[in-house]
């Protein structure tokens, strides 16, 4: 049963936006992984950037983009259940839980790798730079928000079950 | 669920089928089956009123409390 409300138009627009984001992220991931591979194989394409970036930068960006690509797929699946008029399903609770865990792991991965190996573009240095660790709060706040939303969806699922079994 | 709905007995006494009762009460046969098999989590007063009207009985004739292990455990907590 699709929602017969104006919200369905918003959900469909959201689906289109998410599909665009998925395509962009997928292309970005492929480009980053190919670039990392080319540098590792000794290709001369990135000679002009020697000393400024290394293969780890591309791998890091590709890995992070891959994590967010997965999140985009999860969001699309949730939007599809919303369009069908039934977002409060156990699958969405699981998807949201996995999403916030992936965001946290991606941030930890980024921080650890940045601390160990990442070079500072502004200093054009290839040596490890512990002082260049960035810890933006946005990702952590996002993960917390999604964790809370997962529990909200779980409660919504219980309420829906109660409503379905109310005669 | 510790609340039991004695529809079978009332239907037998009134010589009515489940389908006929569902039509008279105005709920789907599926929902009435949920009630009959004890899977319902709640019942609306409007539904209870309609059941009592069509079966010509009191709510106490339909509803029975039989504590089960789950409800006793909930009470203990």
Kindly describe this structure.
- The complex is a heterodimer of chains A (167) and B (77).
- With 167 residues, chain A is mainly α.
- Helices cover 71% and strands 0% of the residues of chain A.
- Chain A has helices at 7-40, 55-83, 90-116, 137-164.
- In chain A, helix 1 runs antiparallel to helix 2 (55-83), helix 2 (55-83) packs antiparallel against helix 3 and helix 3 (90-116) runs antiparallel to helix 4 (137-164).
- Chain A is elongated and about 70 Å long.
- With 77 residues, chain B is mainly α.
- Chain B contains 6 helices and 2 strands.
- Chain B has a two-stranded antiparallel sheet with strand order 1-2.
- In chain B, helix 2 (18-25) packs across helix 3.
- The longest helix of chain B has 11 residues, at 45-55.
- The radius of gyration of chain B is 13 Å and the shape is elongated.
- The A-B interface holds A 161-162, 165-167 and B 27, 31-32, 34-35, 39-44, 47.
Provide the descriptors you would attach to this structure in a database record.
heterodimer, A: 167 residues, mainly alpha, 4 helices, 71% helix, B: 77 residues, two-stranded antiparallel ribbon, 6 helices, 2 strands, 61% helix, elongated
Summarize the structure.
Chain A has 167 residues and is mainly alpha-helical.
Rg of chain B is 13 Å
The overall pLDDT of chain A, averaged over residues, is: 81
Helix tally of chain A? 4
What level of helicity do the residues of chain B show? Answer: 55-70%
Oligomer: heterodimer
Biggest interface and its residues per chain? A-B, 5 and 12 residues
Summarize the helices and strands and which ones pair or pack.
The complex is a heterodimer of chains A (167) and B (77).
Chain A (H helix, E strand, L loop, with lengths): L6 H34 L14 H29 L6 H27 L20 H28 L3
Helix pairs in contact in A: 1-2, 2-3, 3-4
Chain B lengths: L2 E3 L1 H8 L3 H8 L3 H8 L8 H11 L3 H4 E3 L3 H8 L1
Antiparallel strand pairs in B: 1-2
């Amino acid at each position: 049963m699709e929602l017969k409300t104006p919200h369905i138009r918003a959900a469909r627009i959201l689906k289109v936006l998410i599909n665009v984001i998925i395509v962009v992220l997928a292309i970005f991931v492929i480009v980053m992984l190919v670039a990392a591979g080319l540098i590792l194989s000794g290709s001369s394409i990135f000679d002009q950037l020697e000393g400024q970036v290394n293969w780890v930068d591309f791998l890091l960006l590709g890995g992070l983009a891959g994590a967010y690509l997965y999140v985009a797929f999860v969001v699309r699946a949730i939007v599809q259940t919303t369009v069908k008029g039934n977002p409060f399903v156990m699958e969405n609770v699981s998807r949201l839980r996995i999403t916030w865990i992936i965001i946290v792991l991606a941030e930890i991965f980024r921080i650890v790798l940045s601390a160990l190996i990442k070079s500072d573009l502004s200093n054009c240095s290839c040596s490890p730079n512990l002082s260049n660790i960035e810890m933006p709060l946005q990702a952590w706040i996002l993960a917390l928000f999604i964790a809370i939303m997962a529990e909200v969806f779980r409660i919504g699922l219980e309420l829906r079950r109660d409503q379905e079994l109310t005669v | 669920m510790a609340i039991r709905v004695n529809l079978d007995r009332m239907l037998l006494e009134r010589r009515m089928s489940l389908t006929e009762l569902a039509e008279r009460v105005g709920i789907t046969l599926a929902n009435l089956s949920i009630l009959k098999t004890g899977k319902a989590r709640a019942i609306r007063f409007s539904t209870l009123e309609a059941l009592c009207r069509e079966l010509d009985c009191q709510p106490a004739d339909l509803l029975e409390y039989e504590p089960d292990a789950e409800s006793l455990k909930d009470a203990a907590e």
